[in-house]
Design goal:
Blueprint lengths: L5 H21 L5 H5 L1 E2 L10 H4 L7 H22 L1 H34 L8 H7 L1 H4 L3 E2 L3 H14 L4 E2 L8 E2 H18 L7 H20 L8 H27 L5 H30 L6 H10 L2
Antiparallel strand pairs: 1-2, 3-4
Helix pairs in contact: 1-4, 4-5, 4-8, 5-8, 5-10, 8-9, 8-10, 9-10, 11-12
Length: about 300
């Protein structure tokens, strides 16, 4: 757990604690998923705070496990690139956005059912129908972090589009961008072709939609936050390449060094290079733990100098 960045770790803990609380309260007859889950906005049990709380509740252990596994797998990488504040803002915003899209999709379903059963009704009649269908509409409850998790998956694919990942049961690794496109296609097909499967497909798509719009904005407005590749992965790629070049130079220089003054120069050169690399490693560790935004001006300049 000590290697997991701050926000990802705390999200894992909070989701786990809320799942335990669900079972504890269930013993007293209180259904936390009913209280904190996201109800249809025309249902009597709907509350505005549910747009935030629903993403911390889960239907069962399998639901929780796969969401948290994906959060750990992809969230650690994205948070290390963006930093904790930006990552948390993205996660919560996309979770809320997923809930809003789910509400819109439920309204479409409600309107379709109402018009198919009662001919000639208009929008003005929907509130009356909703009031008469209160018990039924209260059952339309959405829980789970899937919308925010799908947004994290999208972020990984947009930051590292050509990174190859293994996905069971495929026997070969595929690029992240194709993995994301495949998931979007599956979710879209499922949302349009399946009914009553207890999966909020439109919430998944909603999280990815909000994530795409947010990342696109950040990408086109650098002042709004570092998009990722330019100030995140590029640092690691450049530093890795520089380290490999310096290591090769040191090995070659050491093998060909002569006695006397040349040996002394080699020793001084290697010592300075080692001290410089230790400082760079310390800064990289700081990025991994707290994000790029936690660096001081001097530390950012140090990384810039080492990437020229």
């Amino acid at each position: 757990m000590r290697t997991i960045p701050t926000i990802t770790k705390n999200l894992l803990i909070i989701n786990g604690l809320m799942f335990l609380a669900y079972f504890v309260f269930a013993r007293t007859g209180v259904d936390l998923n009913d209280i904190l889950g996201l109800h249809f906005f025309m249902a009597p049990d709907f509350q505005l705070y549910q747009l935030f709380t629903y993403m911390f509740m889960h239907a069962n252990f399998t639901h929780l496990f796969f969401n948290m596994f994906a959060l750990w797998m992809f969230g650690c990488v994205v948070e290390n690139v963006w930093g904790p504040k930006k990552f948390l803002f993205y996660y919560i915003s996309c979770g809320v956005g997923a809930g809003i899209i789910q509400e819109i999709a439920q309204f479409g379903s409600f309107y379709y059912m109402a018009t198919s059963q009662l001919a000639g009704i208009g929008f003005s009649d929907l509130s009356t129908i909703a009031a008469n269908s209160a018990d039924f509409l209260n059952m339309w409850t959405t829980v789970g972090a899937s919308g925010a998790i799908y947004a994290i998956l999208l972020a990984f694919g947009m930051i590292f589009p050509n990174e190859r990942i293994f996905i069971f049961p495929l026997p070969i690794p595929i690029k992240a961008k194709w993995f994301v496109i495949f998931y979007v296609a599956v979710e879209l097909f499922s949302a349009l072709s399946t009914t009553n499967d207890s999966v909020a497909h439109f919430a998944h798509l909603g999280g990815m939609l909000f994530g795409f719009l947010m990342i696109t904005y950040w990408k086109n407005h650098p002042g709004g936050g570092n998009y990722g590749r330019s100030r995140g992965q590029q640092f690691f790629d450049n530093l890795k390449n520089n380290w490999e070049r310096r290591s090769h130079k040191r090995d070659t220089y050491t093998r060909n060094a002569t006695a006397g003054d040349e040996r002394q120069k080699d020793w001084e050169y290697n010592r300075r290079q080692q001290e410089n690399q230790e400082e760079v490693d310390r800064i990289l560790d700081k990025i991994r733990k707290s994000g790029y935004d936690s660096l001081t001006k001097e530390e950012k300049q140090k990384l810039f100098d080492n990437n020229r």
